[in-house]
Structure formats: C-alpha cells, structure tokens
Amino acid sequence: MAGYALKRLMTEYKELTTRPPEGIIAAPIDEDNFFEWECLITGPEETCFANGVFPARITFPQDYPLSPPKMRFTCGIFHPNIYPDGRVCISILHAPGDDPTGYESSNERWSPVQSIEKILLSVVSMLAEPNDESPANVNAAKMWREDRAQFEKTADALVRKTLCLPASEV
Amino acid sequence: MVNDALENQPTTAGIVTTTEDELILQDQQMKRIEDEQKASPLVGEKMPCATLVALYDQETAPAFFEKANELAKVYSHIRFIRGDGNCFIRAIQVGLVEILLNDKERLVKFIASSKEWTERLVKLGFPDWTCTDFCEFFIEFIEKVRDGVHQREDVFRIFNDDNTANYLLMFFRLITSGYLKEHAAEYEPFLDEGMSLAQYCETEIEAMWKESDHLGIIALVRALNIRIRIEYMDRNAAPNGGTHHNLPDGHDNATFTPDITLLYRPGHYDLIYKAPLAETSKPALPTVA
C-alpha cells in the first residue's frame, strides 16, 4: 500500500532535514505515520507577521504526490488566504481544474513534481503578500484592504501569542 | 504539422455534432465512459472485437454499430483502458511495453533512451529530484522487464495496481512535457493567447488525470519515437474526415506501419490489435523497421 507515496515522503523529509529552508521546520508527527506532518513557519521579516512562529499541520493523500496535500494552521491565524478554521487556500495546494477560488491561470498549481518545500515557501510568500482577490477569509481581506493598521495590530497580537509574550500595550 | 482539424475534435467537455440522434449517442457514450471509469480495471484483458460490436445496438446506434463491425473486420482484439483522463497515455504505455516484452533489442534501446530522457529533463530545468524520482521509478520497472524479474503477468498486474501504475504513467507525462519544452518555438503558437508553454505543461501535461489534447498526443508520440494509428469511431472526429489518422504526420498512408493502434471514441482511447500474423498466443505486433 502507498509504496511510492511513503518512499517519496521519506525522501522529502530527508531533504528538508539536510537542507532546511530558512525559517521552516517540518517533520512527520509520528515516524510510524509519514502522512501527517507538523511544521513551524517563521513569519517573514519586515511584515506584520515577522518573528511569529506559526504551527501548521500537513495531511498527505495516499496517492501523494499525484494529488496535493492539505495544510491547516493550528494557531488561529487571521489572514485573507487562510480560512477561519486554519485551512490554507493557495493555488499550489490545488490541482489544475480543482478551483474553488478562481485563481488566475498564472498562479502556480500543484503538479507531481512540486514538493513540500515548494508549498512551504509559497506559504511564506503568502504571509508576506496576501492575495485579496480571492479571499478565504473575507473579513481578513476586507481589513487588509481597508484598515491596514487594524490588520497589523491583529497580526501583532497573534505573533505575541505564538511567542507566549504578553499582549502589546499599544 | 499539428493538424487544424485535429484541434477541433470533440473532448469530454465539448460535443461537436449536428443531429439529435448523434447527441443522444454521444450522451450514451459519455455515460458509458463514466460508468466504465468507476467499474472497470485500469487496463482490461485483451478481448475479441466482438465485445466492441456488442456495445452497440443496430436499431438505436446504427452508425456506431456499423463502424464497430467495420473495425471488427480489420482488427481482432480490443483492450479497454479506464477512462480517467489518463487513457491516451496509459494506452500508449501499455501498448509499448507489450511490444517490448516481445522485442528485447528494442527494449534495450528504449531503456537507453529513457535514461537519456532523465538527463534531458534535468537539463530543461525540471525540479531536480522530484522529477528524476519518477524517471528512476519507471526505469527500475522497465529494467525488471528486461531482466525477466517482471514477466508478462507481473507487468499487467502492476499496470492494474493504482499504487504503482499511476506513478509509472508520470514518466510519460514528464517526457511529453519535456518534448514540448524542447520544441517550444514550434508548439507555443498553438496555445491559447496569454498562456505560456510552461504553464500549459504544468497544468495540462504534468498534472495527473488531465486528458491529452492534440499537442500532448503528438509530443508523446515524438518523445517516444513511435508510430501510432488512431481509428475514429465517429467519422466527424477524424481530421481530414477519414476514418483514421496516422502519427507522426508525413508518412505515406499505404506503407505506414503503426506500432500501436488506438480506437478513439468521443473523449476516450482504447487499444486495438490486428489479428496475429502467425499462429501464436502472443500478440504479433509489427515493429518499426
């Protein structure tokens, strides 16, 4: 069962441990189950998410990498491209044709030669540059567009929470 | 080289017909294909062409019934392929490996060219190990065929195992994409405006369960350096209005000897075979001179 998928996930794990991308840690939660991963993503510098460390789960299908994995933040992150329940909604996590948000065709899609690393790097870019054209969280998109100061305040509160720091006094 | 008429052939999404009867026929066809996708194996057993004839009713589907009978005069067997969007590529992969099972010399050459393809893909800038991983997986499989580790029955068991077959198929998707990228100047003009060849390859060729269109078909045929014939069940679908189409183009129809023959029914490909030349249980497919 799932021979290729398992082998591929083990290779990806090895790649990610030997050559980890900056600010990202990802690993299977349990070495007996390579289809469920946990990762920590550092908020990109010079953004309102800077310094935060955001935990997320990645769930792989049995036919990975033919089908893409799913990713969900577990820290209540408020962001235009993340559903209120934490599910990440970016184009690379969708196969072409499977199109819940009507992305433009120029966005990178899932294909079996993509990798976990590519997904995580896309997620970091998404944190830095929200796409408010096709939001997963309409309130977050609206605030990002209309009240940037409030959006940044909300992000800052989350950053502090992920670092176990007291809330900002401002 | 890419025929204009071929570009207009119907796909699953678009139906190109005139009369209501034909529309009903195609609806039935699509329904049948959907049912088939859920119920049938990835690669069926080789069946007598009478199986194809039996699918059509002389009263309700006279055109297809007649065509099926015509085909049954020329072809002896059919192998149904699951209609899951991969059918063209799967049919080619199965058809080719069937030839290679009986032609050691060609098998050895094919392995060498598969290894060359791995290097060509890397040179084209395909993501390093995620791409070569698929190449190595396929080469390992085909080398086991060469070494007799995989006998004929093993090959067909593997082709019917979802956990393996679809990963083997990815190699053919990648070389199709690679061939298009190597000949970008030639093929890019055929794409819809605003779409780059790289995007097309990523979303239409490299992604699983995406049906092959004319570019995907010609690129795979050229990447593998094979000759194929496509027989059309529906005369409207054939380029030049004929009953079949040979690829690559530019060969004399009379002397063209296909390695693999496919039957095209709206939105779907299956493998068809001529009667064995000699009395043998093995398929006596002609090989390229």
Automatic annotation (TrEMBL), chain A:
Catalytic activity: S-ubiquitinyl-[E1 ubiquitin-activating enzyme]-L-cysteine + [E2 ubiquitin-conjugating enzyme]-L-cysteine = [E1 ubiquitin-activating enzyme]-L-cysteine + S-ubiquitinyl-[E2 ubiquitin-conjugating enzyme]-L-cysteine
UniProt GO MF annotations: ATP binding; ubiquitin conjugating enzyme activity
Keyword ATP-binding included in the entry's annotation: yes
CDD domains: UBCc_UBE2G2 (cd23796)
InterPro entries: Ub_conjugating_enzyme, UBC, UBQ-conjugating_AS, UBQ-conjugating_enzyme/RWD
Ranges where the UBC core domain occurs: 4-164
E.C. number: 2.3.2.23
GO terms (BP aspect): ERAD pathway; protein polyubiquitination; ubiquitin-dependent protein catabolic process
Record bears the keyword Nucleotide-binding: yes
Keywords per UniProt: ATP-binding, Nucleotide-binding, Transferase, Ubl conjugation pathway
GO cellular component terms, A-Z: cytosol; endoplasmic reticulum
Annotated signal peptide: none
Coiled-coil region(s): none
Active site: C89
Family, as annotated: Belongs to the ubiquitin-conjugating enzyme family.
Subunit structure: Interacts with AUP1 (via C-terminus); the interaction recruits UBE2G2 to lipid droplets. Interacts with ubiquitin ligases AMFR/gp78 and RNF139/TRC8; recruitment to lipid droplets by AUP1 facilitates interaction of UBE2G2 with AMFR and RNF139, leading to sterol-induced ubiquitination of 3-hydroxy-3-methylglutaryl coenzyme A reductase and its subsequent proteasomal degradation.
Protein name (Swiss-Prot/TrEMBL): Ubiquitin-conjugating enzyme E2 G2
Organism of provenance: Caenorhabditis briggsae
Phylogenetic placement of the source organism: Eukaryota, Metazoa, Ecdysozoa, Nematoda, Chromadorea
TrEMBL record, chain B:
Any one GO MF annotation of this record: cysteine-type deubiquitinase activity
Active site: D84, C87 (nucleophile), H268
Presence of the UniProt keyword Hydrolase in the record: yes
Residue stretches making up the OTU domain: 76-275
Enzyme class, first EC level, given as a word: hydrolase
GO cellular component, one term: nucleus
GO biological process, one term: protein K48-linked deubiquitination
EC number from the UniProt entry: 3.4.19.12
SUPFAM superfamilies in UniProt: Cysteine proteinases (SSF54001)
Catalytic activity: Thiol-dependent hydrolysis of ester, thioester, amide, peptide and isopeptide bonds formed by the C-terminal Gly of ubiquitin (a 76-residue protein attached to proteins as an intracellular targeting signal)
Listed Gene3D superfamilies: Peptidase C65 Otubain, subdomain 1 (3.30.200.60), Peptidase C65 Otubain, subdomain 2 (1.20.1300.20)
Residues the record marks as site: Interacts with free ubiquitin: I218, Y232, D234, Y264, Y269
Keywords: Hydrolase, Protease, Thiol protease, Ubl conjugation pathway
PANTHER family, per the entry: UBIQUITIN THIOESTERASE OTUBAIN-LIKE (PTHR12931:SF15), UBIQUITIN THIOLESTERASE PROTEIN OTUB (PTHR12931)
Function: Hydrolase that can remove conjugated ubiquitin from proteins and plays an important regulatory role at the level of protein turnover by preventing degradation. Specifically cleaves 'Lys-48'-linked polyubiquitin.
Family recorded in the similarity comment: Belongs to the peptidase C65 family.
Name of the protein this chain belongs to: Ubiquitin thioesterase
Organism: Caenorhabditis nigoni
